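Shipment paperwork, digital attachment
Item: protein structure file
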Amino acid sequence: MVGQNFWYLVSESKSLYTDIIKPLEYKAHEHNERFLVEKVRITNILTKAFIDTYCDQLGAIDWKKIVRFTCGNYDMDKFLP
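Attachment content:
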C-alpha cells in the first residue's frame, strides 16, 4: 500500500497526503538554512587550512608543495641494491 491509500490507512483522512506537505516544506527550509550555514563554516575552515599549508606569504599556491604532498613517495632506495 502506497501513496494516498497508505496515508488514508494510517489517518482515515483522504487529504492527509497533501495536508502534510506544508509542515514538511517548512522543516526542509529550516534544515536547509542550517545546512548552508554549516557548509560555509566548514568551507572557511578547509580554505584556511589549505592557505596556511599550501600558499606562500602573498597567497599564491605553492604547487611544488602540493605535488610533493600528493605524489611524493620516492622510496626506491628501499627496493634497489
